[in-house]
Design goal:
Arc Repressor Mutant, subunit A; two-stranded antiparallel sheet; WH-like_DNA-bd_sf; DNA-binding transcription factor activity; 7 helices; mainly alpha; 4 strands
Length: 164
């Protein structure tokens, strides 16, 4: 079965899912965020085959999420700035999973402030002025990259919410 690509879609979520839509890719990024650097360590921590890991690492490097660095006779995989920015998605997914798919014993991992050991608060939305927002407060507006189809879809959504 051939994989469908969303790279030509006028949707940032669809294009991001071209890279992040595979669960192995997200788990590899999680491991890199937690400090894993070596191929064998990724394989051991994730329990995946060498061939799948190799393909996924290559894809993540092609998309500038990871970069390969020589460390003497070995190679390290390190997150780029683009890759480190995935942390908000990973944290949000972890918090969502803990809330909606909890283990009876409690969460397997608790994210904490390294300095105070205080647990992280749930991620929240805020506008550029720092005002907290709930989902009902968030609307859509056409951005500079919106094509006519996207602009029309946004108009439809705005009309639906104008009735609310």
């Amino acid at each position: 079965m051939e994989r469908v690509s969303f790279e030509d879609r006028n949707c940032s979520i669809a294009r991001a899912l071209d890279v992040l839509g595979d669960w192995w890719n997200v788990l590899i990024i999680r491991e890199a965020l937690w400090g894993t650097r070596k191929f064998d360590d990724f394989q051991r921590h994730l329990g995946m085959s060498k061939s799948i890991l190799s393909k996924r690492l290559k894809l993540l490097m092609e998309h500038d999420i990871l970069e390969k660095r020589s460390q003497g006779s070995s190679v390290d995989y390190q997150l780029t700035t683009k890759g480190r920015e995935v942390q908000a998605i990973i944290v949000s997914l972890l918090q969502w999973g803990d809330r909606w798919y909890p283990q009876a014993e409690g969460p397997p991992v608790v994210l904490v402030n390294r300095h105070t050991r205080a647990p992280l608060a749930p991620l929240r939305f805020q506008d550029e002025q720092g005002n907290p927002l709930e989902l009902a407060d968030i609307g859509l507006s056409a951005g500079p990259g919106a094509n006519e189809e996207t602009r029309e879809r946004i108009r439809q959504i705005q009309c639906l919410h104008a009735v609310d």
